[in-house]
Write a structure and sequence with these properties.
This protein is mainly β and 329 residues long. It has 2 domains: 228 residues, Sandwich (Jelly Rolls); 79 residues, Sandwich (Jelly Rolls). β15 and β16 form a beta hairpin. Pfam families: PMI_typeI_cat. InterPro entries: Carb_Metab_Reg_Kinase/Isom (IPR051804), Man6P_isomerase_Firm_short (IPR014628), PMI_typeI_cat (IPR046457), RmlC-like_jellyroll (IPR014710), RmlC_Cupin_sf (IPR011051). This is Mannose-6-phosphate isomerase.
């Protein structure tokens, strides 16, 4: 008798960053021994990852200790969806992470699929952010605040006035932003963010605020590479309303790279995936929830994630909390 797949949890992959803080560790993310000295500077928790060298490892059930690539090779479309498997093969197509920005991140940009393939043999990086929490006065920079030419941009970079050209957003908990590849952006301090992105770790750093790295030297910038990657078209809207009524589901973004909904669970919410040919990733940003499926049940606390294999047709979400739902269409 064939054993049905079940909701999968993975071991978080923690990343020490010069701008990171301690909120992820305080939230219960287990710190590996090799990062014990960096407990106060954990900037990222990679929750579900297919990035080469950082492939997520299952932490529950009979597949425990197998990584995401290994189980994709065995279960193929039953795990990720037939169309997803045909398109992406063994590479899981999205990277889910939490970001704790204790300090401001660099001003940066990511290449699109074409440029990333040409330069790095990789996919590009379109991403979205959901603000899980923030301190008063927290802000983001996303995109240009007016039409900007290539020459104006280069002059601002050389003069250290780049942020004068960028759109600054004052943010609140529950805000969401869509950042297509080619968009100049920076995450300000005091932000806890859930990020969903293409499976890529390519970043072109444009400015790092004159900050020194841990070696006492300025961190590497990628000014020339970034200039070729930037989309200078003006007029895009990056902010996405993401407030859902209790018990309801609201779409935040739907793109060729991923679709993300926010679900406000207050009691019980039923989700029907019978017609969806894709995995479903759940990211709990607040509260305490339970997901019951025909393949099994799992609890989700704040800042935890769960992967529902594509062969699961229905989930009943119960409890009280905020959930991001991610899949491919």
């Amino acid at each position: 008798m064939e054993v049905m797949l079940y909701p999968l949890k993975f071991k978080p992959i923690l990343k020490s960053q010069i701008w990171g803080g301690d909120r992820l560790v305080k939230a219960g993310k287990r710190l590996p021994a090799k990062l014990s000295a960096a407990a106060g500077s954990i900037g990222e928790s990679w929750e579900i990852s297919g990035v080469e060298g950082d492939v997520s490892v299952v932490s529950n059930g009979f597949l425990k200790s197998n990584n995401l690539e290994e189980i994709t090779e065995v279960y193929m479309g039953d795990l990720v969806g037939e169309k997803v498997y045909d398109t992406y093969g063994l590479e899981f197509p999205v990277l889910v992470k939490f970001i704790d920005a204790h300090d401001v991140l660099s001003v940066q940009v990511h290449p699109d699929d074409g440029l990333a393939r040409e330069r790095h043999g990789s996919r590009g990086k379109t991403e979205m952010w959901y603000v899980a929490d923030c301190e008063p006065g927290a802000y983001l920079y996303v995109g240009f605040n007016r039409p900007v030419t290539r020459d104006e941009y280069l002059r601002a970079v050389s003069e250290g006035t780049l942020t004068d050209l960028l759109m600054r957003y004052e943010v609140r908990k529950g805000d969401a932003y869509y950042i297509p590849a080619g968009t100049v952006h920076a995450i300000g301090p005091g932000l806890l963010i859930a990020e969903i992105q293409e499976t890529s770790d390519i970043t072109y750093r444009i400015s790092d605020w004159g900050r020194l790295g841990r070696d006492g030297k300025p961190r590497q910038l990628h000014t020339a590479e970034a200039t070729d990657a930037i989309d200078f078209n003006y007029g895009k809207e990056y902010f996405r309303p993401a407030v859902a009524a209790p018990g309801s589901v609201k779409e935040i973004v739907s793109t060729p790279f991923f679709t993300t909904n926010v679900i406000e669970v207050d009691g019980e919410v039923r989700r029907d995936y019978a017609s969806l040919d894709s995995f479903v990733a759940y990211i709990c940003t607040d509260g305490a929830l339970r997901a019951d499926t025909d393949g099994g049940s799992e609890k989700l606390a704040a800042l935890e994630s769960l992967l529902l294999p594509a062969e699961i047709d229905e989930a009943v979400l119960s409890g009280k909390g905020t959930l991001l739902e991610v899949y491919m269409v």
